[in-house]
User: Which sequence fits this backbone?
């Protein structure tokens, strides 16, 4: 259904445009200020043929400007610059209304007649439908523009909505493939580390066991625990093969910590209410806790016999808050961080952010002070059940 443009800009128009969640979703597409691509250009050409208009745009709108990822029929500076400030934008109102908007003659419309797009770009008639990102945030407008009055038909509206849906699928597929590539890199990272992890298990077991039989038993159990942890990580890179038994958060954390523990030293506490995880949550939390456990074994509370690790969780409204606390640890030698350092900003940090924030809609807060490292993960309870 098409709605006319409002007579006045909504009071919360600017705050909606600049909402952090929307701008973050827009940045995550990696489409701003990128070169033209045929898959998007084809859609705007088709839109102009369907509507009989000279101009078609895929306009991505941030808090200050609109960027034309695809355009056809546009001329002048706006075409060369592939965008305009919001002073020349009708698309901004489609974004904040999050519904198809149409005007037959903007020169007679109270809100639009003074918009510089009318005088400088020759925009008279406009039909725009919202374009959404994978998270549902409105990224911009897919629109058809005429330089003369145009009465839009319901069929034209539906056609643009269908084309917009196709573009949304393309955007979602790109983000999914980017995440999958990131996770493939993670798998390669883990495979390269497997021998050093096993070497650490052997050293740990030799220090603890007094006989060859006991050593063999300990090695077998720890390598098996490592294999179980690895099995929790593998399904994320195997499409359509994520079926499996649900497990509890307690079991997941214990499984992933097992390869790094010296059983003679009671320095790990895992505590929280029983919480059964869905398969998606198992997969991404496995990546999170595998990364945290590996870092703790290399640099933190599990790297010597002085540190302590406490993992606890509780319910806070409709969210689950997980606290990972390492105490009695040595400050990192590289304050700027490295690929795996507990204070790092490299690959490991990126992996944590993708898993917690993008895949599970959560937040991750990391703090280091007074020989302790704390990480607080807050997740919507609903995201842990899928």
Assistant:
């Amino acid at each position: 259904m098409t709605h006319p443009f409002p007579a006045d800009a909504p009071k919360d128009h600017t705050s909606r445009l600049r909402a952090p969640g929307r701008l973050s979703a827009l940045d995550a597409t990696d489409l701003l200020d990128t070169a033209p691509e045929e898959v998007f250009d084809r859609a705007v050409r088709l839109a102009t043929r369907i509507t009989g208009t000279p101009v078609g745009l895929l306009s991505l709108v941030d808090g200050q400007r609109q960027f034309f990822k695809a355009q056809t029929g546009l001329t002048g500076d706006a075409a060369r610059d592939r965008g305009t400030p919001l002073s020349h934008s009708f698309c901004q109102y489609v974004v904040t209304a999050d519904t198809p908007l149409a005007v037959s003659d903007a020169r007679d419309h109270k809100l639009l007649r003074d918009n510089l797009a009318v005088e400088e770009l020759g925009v008279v008639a406009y039909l725009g439908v919202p374009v959404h990102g994978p998270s549902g945030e409105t990224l911009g407008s897919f629109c058809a523009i005429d330089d003369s009055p145009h009465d839009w038909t319901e069929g034209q509206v539906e056609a643009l909505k269908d084309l917009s849906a196709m573009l949304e699928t393309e955007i979602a597929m790109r983000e999914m493939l980017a995440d999958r590539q990131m996770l493939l890199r993670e798998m390669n990272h883990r495979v390269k580390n497997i021998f050093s992890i096993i070497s650490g298990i052997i050293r740990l077991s030799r220090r603890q066991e007094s006989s060859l039989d006991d050593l063999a038993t300990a090695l077998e159990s720890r390598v098996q625990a490592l294999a179980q942890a690895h099995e929790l990580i593998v399904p994320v890179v195997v499409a359509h093969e994520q079926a499996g038994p649900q497990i509890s958060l307690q079991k997941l954390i214990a499984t992933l910590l097992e390869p790094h523990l010296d059983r003679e030293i009671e320095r790990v506490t895992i505590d929280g209410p029983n919480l059964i995880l869905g398969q998606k949550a198992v997969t991404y939390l496995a990546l999170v806790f595998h990364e945290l456990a590996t870092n703790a074994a290399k640099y933190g509370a599990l790297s010597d016999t002085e540190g302590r690790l406490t993992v606890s969780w509780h319910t806070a409204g409709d969210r689950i808050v997980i606290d990972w606390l390492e105490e009695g640890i040595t400050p990192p030698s590289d304050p700027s961080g490295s690929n795996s350092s507990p204070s790092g900003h490299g690959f490991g940090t990126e992996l944590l952010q993708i898993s917690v924030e993008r895949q599970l809609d959560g937040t991750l807060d990391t703090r280091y002070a007074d020989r302790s490292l704390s990480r607080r993960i807050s997740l919507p309870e609903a995201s842990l059940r899928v």
